[in-house]
Amino acid sequence: MNTIRSGDLLENVFIEEALSEGKALARHEGFVLFVEGAVPGDRADVEVRYKKKRFAEARVTRIVSPSAERTDPFCAHFGTCGGCKWQHFSYSGQLAFKQKQVVDALTRIGKLEVKEIMPILPSARTQYYRNRLDFTFSNKRWLTKDEIATTETIVEPALGFHVPQRFDKVLDIQTCYLQDDLSNKIRNAIREFSIANDYSFFDLREQTGLLRNLTIRSTSTGEWMVLLAFHHEDMEKITAILEFISGRFPELTSLLYVVNSKRNDTIFDQDIKLYKGRDHLFEEMEGLHFKISAKSFYQTNSDQAYTLYKVARSFAGLTGEESVYDLYTGTGTIANFVSKQCRHVTGIDYIVDAIEDAKENSHNNGILNTSFFAGDIKDTLTNDFIQSNGRPDVVITDPPRAGMHEDVTLKIAEIAPEKIVYVSCNPSTQARDMAILASKYSVEKIQPVDMFPHTSHVENVALLRRRND
After folding, report:
1. Which of 35, 138, 378, 454 is the most exposed place for a label (fewest CB within 10 A)?
2. Higher confidence at residue 145 or residue 245?
3. Which of 243, 139, 236, 260 minimizes the C-alpha distance to 190?
4. Which one, of 80, 21, 71, 10, lies nearest residue 43 by Cα?
């Protein structure tokens, strides 16, 4: 019987392999440990944070001998901020884990036979690669252990990221290496102005305070969008801070605001108002220009989005004669990207604003062989819809992390296109969906793509071909 208890210090534990969410696997006397702050190959002293029946959560307290894969974190917020949990893990090690994660999900979880497994495509940039960051205002910043240990009461505002697993705690971020440094300058200037002018920061528990959220978006073409979310309407203060931002950062393409008095931060059902500039940005890809509005989804790593879409287009193997369905089309990026290589593309997505952007993207790029429909895909993809729009030869699907609704997966199997190109940000749900299709489709090849360096997240593109047997 294992005698491990919460609070125990275990010495010289060998770290076996990486796991998702920045943790690593180790064993102590045969008992499984999920360890924070470790890298495969480390030997470390670890503290048991809490014990479950079959495993324990632990964290590194001292590195006895470092792994060859261990690197020095480059961010001062590493270890508290949950955004880049693998900064201490070599990039080559990260890629190896992600490759294994995809293969294990499809072959072990999904029990799928994959004819060709291609090596993961790395990100050219491992810093400053994101085009969007979302920050939260809080009237009480997250304190360090040393600050908590002092007798002095510290209550200061914060503008930054949520501390992992703490919805009401926000880490004040000074420098973030995920987006171009202009993002840091904008965020820090907004914080300084707000504190100097006695603006109230949001209290996430009490639901009080004026300043609530900040979204900063950028494009590879150098355009920038700032969206400020306020909890209630105070036009004197709202106008003053927006005027400050506009004057300090004349390079902004779009300056927007929204008043969101709900108990959650989602803005899809809110009225976003334009203060200055355009209400959208334009991203460019192979000469095509894509409109991105405040509510639009666009892959957050622009360079790797291009890589991802080229893989999807290559897997589709279009000859110019095919009818293509693009499910979860968003702003129609993939649909418009492949339109020159096929006869017609039909895109579906549940976000109305995104579909309007998709239509406008086709119009602005002179693309005439696309059509887009807004609606829940499981309710939209009906026999009447297929009869009206034609049976697809190829289905491209790029669902959210939860994967496809089972009704959608079954409907695709019923429609039986010759090829399915499945783009996924979650190999586990991708494996689940592909297992449903396995009776009718073979998995020809998969191509992992790293979109998010220093995290465990990975994109994967799979080509499924209809069986003729």
Report:
1. 378
2. 245
3. 243
4. 10
Sign of the alpha-carbon dihedral angle for 89, 94, 96, 101 = positive
- Distance, CA of 207 to CA of 264 (rounded, Å): 10
CATH code of 132-285, in short, is: 2.40.50.1070
User: Domain spanning 92-126+301-466 has what CATH number?
Assistant: 3.40.50.150
Per-residue model confidence (pLDDT) at position 81: 87
CATH 3.40.50.150 maps onto the chain at 92-126+301-466
Residue-level pLDDT at 55: 92
Give yes or no: 84 in active site: no
Radius of gyration (C-alpha) of the chain in whole angstroms: 24
Q: Are strands 344-349 and 323-327 parallel, antiparallel or unpaired?
A: parallel
Which DSSP letter does residue 81 get? B
Please pick, among 75, 176, 342, 425, the residue that the annotation labels catalytic.
425
Question: Cα separations (Å) of 227 from 90, 134, 161?
Answer: 35, 9, 16
Sequence-separated contacts (24+) of 171-175 with Cβ below 8 Å: 171/77, 171/80, 171/81, 171/141, 171/142, 172/141, 172/142, 173/77, 173/81, 173/135, 174/76, 174/77, 175/75, 175/76, 175/77
For 309-321, the pLDDT digits (tens) are 999 999 999 999 9
Region 122-144: mean pLDDT is 92
* Extended strands (E) in 52-150: 55-65, 114-117, 132-138
Most confident stretch, 15-24, 33-42, 140-149: 33-42
Q: Where in the chain is the domain with CATH 2.40.50.1070?
A: 132-285
CB 219 within 8 A of CB 283: yes
Q: What are the backbone angles phi and psi of residue 456, rounded to the nearest 5°?
A: -90, 0
Range(s) within the chain of domains with CATH label 2.40.50.140: 1-69
Q: Span 160-181, mean pLDDT? A: 89
Q: How is domain 1-69 classified at the architecture level of CATH?
A: Beta Barrel (2.40)
